[in-house]
Amino acid sequence: MPRLPLEGIRIIDLGHVFAVPYACGLMADMGAEVIKIEGPGRLDITRDGPFAGVHADNRPGADPWNRTANFNLINRGKKSMVLDLSRAEGREVLKDLIRVSDVFLESFTPRVMRGWGLDYPNMKQLKPDIIMVSNTGYGPGSGPYSQYPAQATTQEATHGLAHVTGYRGDIPSKAGQSFVDFLASWACLMGTALALRYRHRYKKGLWIDVGMYQLGCYTVSEYILDWLANGRLGERLGNRHPSKAPQGCYPCAGDDQWCVVSVRDDEEWAALCRLIGKPELAQEARFATHLDRLAHHDEIDGIVAEWTRGLPKFEAMERLQGAGVPAGAVFDARDVNLDPHLRSRGFLETLRFPPEREMGERVIIGRPWRLSKTPLATRGPGPALGEHNRDVIQGILGYSDARYADLEQAGIVATRPTQLRALAYMEMDERVRQGRLAYWDPDFKQRLGTEDGEPGVGEPRAASPAPRDPP
Q1: Beta strand extents in 243-401 (DSSP E only)
Q2: What whole-number distance in Å separates Cα of residue 420 and Cα of residue 422?
Q3: Model pTM?
Q4: Is the predicted pLDDT of residue 461 greater than 50, yes or no?
């Protein structure tokens, strides 16, 4: 087997929630040894907080912090060390680990690392060629926002996305997911790759400063430029587009089934008219030009919706695409998990958990890229809390049995949380009733093909194909 791209690189993951942990999970896929550090009283909230997702089989079990969906997805292939960094003894262990590591990623507000004496100038004293990646809300500099705590869901307001998201005449809205977290993941990945290249060439470390606020502003850059150049503020357009007509999300056969259509020019408009059996509309004065179609968009929406309502969304999409009209069915979670294209690309992988975790097999997402000569795969499930304490502290750092026992006795290291957020258990049908889920499939394991797998414990395999349009 070819060597993996990051084989031999040791990474300390001191991140939280999505941005840094997901970047580190992808680096674990690429061969890095990633050590995730959590505090015994401060678990990653994908273990026990609002971002945890549903427990495996919706059963909390005796160790619910090890059974949550999001934690095991984002932190796949890592080692887990629980270390109380609020105490000097815990920070001394971390400093020893920094001395034998290559990359350190963190997502605290700037005051935390400075308060611990572990900001970049001090970290270089521990290891001169260390690579440090800091993912903060607004950057650690002297700007007026630099000390603000932040999260992606609220930053959508401050960087301007909410102002241009929502329906015309309605209130500002957030995007469906905290996507700036994942922009930060890509930025952390790119920064780490550049820093490793820099260190390889110049034998020096580097500090990568990722400000999520700037990443968010970058996504609305055309609106910023429009204001600078023209003094024009962006507006909320719903599913429409400032320069395409018709552009919208149209109802299809079934409950809550939709297809997006986006017409760019006269040729595509004429093709759409022919497809829906109304070729004469292309010649009507009210729809003759792009500006005319923008002015009569409501009328066009009614005409297109009348046609799409009679078709399943995938059939509508394929007919439109076949006629040369840009279109896409709106996938929900089930469509994505059963999508044969994603499976054929290896993007959906199945992991088998160790028997003691009682989680069986689970389908997770892989990576958004493939390498031509180096097959990549998820290297294992997310770790149980503190699963690798002894491996790291004694195996890597060389601490004696007595010293490890002292740390354990003092509560510096642990395998169970000292504090746990209360997660209300809720039956799946009740989740649907309350609107937290649109629906759920009791036979989801059979649909995903995860009940009887061949690989060994922790070994990934490609998910089997499934019908594209589930009944």
Answers
A1: 247-251, 258-262, 327-329, 348-352, 361-365
A2: 6
A3: 0.87
A4: no
